Amino acid sequence: MKPGVQRSVGLFFLAFLFMAASAIPLAIVCYALLGATYRLSDDGKKALGVALWAAVSAFIVLNSFVVALALAAGAAMGIVLAEAIERRWSYGWQLTLAAGAGFTALCTPLFLTWSEARHEATIFFNARIAEFEAMENANTQWIEMFRWWDLHYNYVVLGSSFGSVLALATVTICLL
After folding, report:
1. Among 35, 58, 88, which residue terminates a domain?
2. How confident is the model over 144-166, as pLDDT tens digits?
3. Closest Cα to residue 100, out of 117, 81, 85, 113?
């Protein structure tokens, strides 16, 4: 097997493992790298095939249209980044493109389901608080931290989401 083929098979395998383990952001990075690799080698059909495979496999394995869309968008972002590399865009512009598009893709479903997401977060935080309060020698700092997160969730979630997207975009571009 050729080294390029081995790398591609390895990235497909890694992406599938990350997806099966619900490590979706890492699967997105793998699919973006695959899409960019095929695009940079002037194989546009395979690059589009990566995006299609990402969507179909996510829908079959995770039964989630939103995750399937996110993985397909990640693979497509790899194709767009490959175009930016070929046009000799600077690292800063590539990072701006990847982070902006990734944050938009992440936050669109979040905004569409904001009240549900907020309600689920409150349930999660209150469950953790109840667990700590049920412990005999509970650390009150954890309880206060979860209360703070529940109170400030509306303000912190978008910033932490952007930080995560920026870190993943940085890793993806550095690996290209």
Report:
1. 88
2. 999 999 999 888 888 888 888 88
3. 81
